[in-house]
Amino acid sequence: MSVSKSYAKAILESAKEMGLKSSDLDQIQSDLESFRKALNESAELNEALTSPVVSSQNKVDISEAVAAKMGFSQLTNHFVALVSRKGRIDMFDDIADSFMEVRLEAEGATMGAVVSAEVLQQSDLEELATAFSKKTGKKTVFKAEVDPNLLAGLKVTVSGVTYDGSLRAQLQQLRDQMVYGTA
Asked: Which end of the chain is less enclosed by CB atoms within 10 A, N or C?
């Protein structure tokens, strides 16, 4: 298990031990996303929380101040402070992604990734999620990414299996058929 997944499981288990509801988990997820966004948008904040010259206690103080200003729940505030104290802020993107993943797993769902050449509409993602939910027998939620190198089509990964319907993959198959005579 990765370190980021361990942290994500820790906050989820803490929330469950506290008897928090699904709406509270939604808030925690929103808090984690907000903190991720703040880290990614503020070079100063990121530098302060990742710099080796800033003491661990100062990092905790900074992260707690940011969390309080952003109105985070007490659990999220403590969690962000813990991540800061342990020097793991550089992993916060992965931790936030892992929280969503472990939460879905705990709810009997699965996380998938879809990569497309262009930004997908929400309705397209929902349609894809419905199709894969039927295929896997589990609720499936997708994280979307854009890769213009695909040219067109989609590349979908669910439960470790990748379905490559990209134009690039189709052209590669055609090339292989022509060069190697494979069908």
From this structure: C
Same domain, 127 and 71: no
- What letter does residue 119 receive in the DSSP assignment? P
Range of the domain at 34: 3-104
**Token couple for 1:** 């298990």
pTM of this prediction? 0.69
109-166 tens-digit pLDDT: 777 778 887 787 788 888 878 887 888 777 877 888 887 777 777 777 777 777 776 6
| In a shared domain, residues 126 and 71 | no
Q: How many domains does the chain have?
A: 2
DSSP 181: -
